[in-house]
User: What shape does this take?
Amino acid sequence: MRTKLLFLLLALAALAPACSRGAPDLELERREMDLGSMPNGEVREFQVEVRNVGTGVLQIEAVSTSCGCTTARVEPSEIEPGASGTLYVTFDSGTHGPEMVGSVTRQVFIASNDPREPEVTFTFTAEVTKP
Assistant: This one.
């Protein structure tokens, strides 16, 4: 019985520091952006600040996009409480061929260890015109 109790107390002591660190909270500088008008074939790159407004270390687990015409990444992949990183996005308006014109909407999905919102979506729009 004493051995089991000792083991339980040691396990709880080992977990205590992890539990007391608090939770991360991912906040984007903005959740939407309008790129305006751009000719088909143009490539636009832009950045959005990613902040950790929580009390635990924010870990970016995955970054994905809604379309192959868009690439994205967050650096660094671990953000300390009160610090920030950057979401880098590249949109290639010519990926779907020169006939693709009109209004487009694309999303970037950021998965993290934020317990309140494990996946955050960033949306951007553009009006693609003839080349």
In short: The chain is about 15% helix and 50% strand. The helical segments are 2-20. The mean pLDDT is 90.
